UniProtKB/TrEMBL annotation, chains A, B:
Enzyme class label: ligase
GO CC terms of this entry: cytoplasm
Descriptive protein name: Phosphoribosylformylglycinamidine synthase subunit PurS
Enzyme Commission identifier(s): 6.3.5.3
InterPro entries: PurS, PurS-like_sf
Its biological purpose: Part of the phosphoribosylformylglycinamidine synthase complex involved in the purines biosynthetic pathway. Catalyzes the ATP-dependent conversion of formylglycinamide ribonucleotide (FGAR) and glutamine to yield formylglycinamidine ribonucleotide (FGAM) and glutamate. The FGAM synthase complex is composed of three subunits. PurQ produces an ammonia molecule by converting glutamine to glutamate. PurL transfers the ammonia molecule to FGAR to form FGAM in an ATP-dependent manner.
Main location: cytoplasm
Gene3D superfamilies xrefs: Phosphoribosylformylglycinamidine synthase subunit PurS
Amino acid sequence: MKGRVLISPKKGIADPQGTAVEQALHALGFADVRAVRVGKVIDLELPEGDRVAALAALARMSEQLLANTVVETYSCSILDEGA
Amino acid sequence: MKGRVLISPKKGIADPQGTAVEQALHALGFADVRAVRVGKVIDLELPEGDRVAALAALARMSEQLLANTVVETYSCSILDEGA
């Protein structure tokens, strides 16, 4: 099954990349865009099986490697394929 | 309203960052993780209003700035706040 981890800078943590994107969007004419934050998305394939165990594994991966939990938050999800 | 753009490397395009993350996960004991792909998530705030127009604006931003459409795909969504 497919798993996804979203990683974003925590509120209050400076996000220079987001600021740069926001300024570039303003320069392109998207004047009313605000609060741009740039993070990472990590998609991966896990063996079929228990969804709860898979989510727990994604959370462990996030804590141990994917996210810097001092300055970043993460959220994990399982992407359903078909119905 | 809150908008989100997800940007991922296209299928068949090499993703060295994904490969590095996959190897690191294997080294940490997550042996059965496969097909790791690392992309970007861009969250931003748009003025309240027409959701269809907002989605179209997100798509234009993606085409013009956020995504490199030669090697990346993007998907846009509006995140609902509350009910």
